[in-house]
Design goal:
Oligomer: single chain
Shape: globular
Helix content: under 10%
Order of helices and strands: HEEEEEEEEHEEEEHEEEEEE
Number of strands: 18
Largest sheet: 5 strands, antiparallel
Number of helices: 3
Radius of gyration: 18 Å
Length: 234
């Protein structure tokens, strides 16, 4: 199903007030249901049935790209362990459910991997598993790593915590879930579906904004916990 801003995509065929806002919340487990909404909320999550999930959202402008109906934002820098990885000025970031993991152009990727290696040097390394280049042994439980923050315009911050930055690829190996897109990759940053999991995302075409919650797991809930009995609008 095409969910872009194109006039041929599915949202364009909906009743007009519904077509301007698309909200997406993808589960982290194949067996668990996620949810997608057209139109405004409110949206409620269990077990906190009195909290509208929109109260968790931060917003950043959507950026239009010529000859593209995709969704784009700007990322000014990437912060890991209180140190910033430089991102070239005017770098465009694409939000894409076709990419399984976030892809970074080589110059950005190398900076991220170098810094992440430094802040996780206490962890036992493991042989890389394609398509990843930085992996760790998980023979002991409780692997936890520092947050990765995408710093956006106006000081907004999209936090990628352990569930969205580390992929368990075997019983004994987990890897940093970012991929090298190559030296000429454009856009330079493409945020993929693994980083969307258990994040509530709102694409508001009326206001040209993108809303994001960061991980709902830190709110003791998930994308599988929507309480549809409390939705009071059609």
């Amino acid at each position: 199903m095409a969910l872009s801003s194109s006039r041929y995509a599915w949202p364009a065929f909906l009743y007009q007030p519904l077509s301007n806002i698309l909200s997406l919340c993808l589960p982290s487990k194949p067996s668990a249901p996620g949810v997608m909404f057209f139109g405004s909320g409110p949206y409620y999550l269990l077990p906190q049935s009195n909290v509208d999930v929109r109260s968790y959202l931060c917003y950043t402008p959507l950026v239009k790209q010529q000859d593209s109906f995709g969704y784009f934002i700007r990322v000014n820098s990437i912060l890991i362990g209180k140190k910033s990885i430089n991102v070239p000025a005017n770098t465009i970031t694409k939000l894409n459910t076709m990419d399984p993991y976030t892809t970074l152009r080589t110059d950005i990727y190398n900076g991220v991997v170098k810094r992440f290696s430094k802040v996780t040097k206490r962890l036992r390394p493991a042989k890389p598993v394609a398509p990843f280049s930085l992996c760790y042994s998980t023979s002991t439980t409780g692997l936890k790593v520092p947050d990765i923050d995408f710093i956006l315009p106006d000081g907004k911050k999209w936090t990628v915590s352990t569930p969205n930055s580390i992929k368990q690829v075997t019983h004994e190996v987990a890897c940093l879930a970012f991929v090298d897109g190559g030296a000429t990759s454009e856009p330079a940053i493409v945020i993929g579906i693994f980083q969307f999991e258990d994040n509530f995302l709102e694409f508001n075409l009326e206001n040209s904004t993108f809303g994001f919650s960061s991980s709902l797991l830190r709110k003791q809930t998930s994308c599988s916990n929507f309480n549809f009995t409390l939705i009071n609008s059609p």
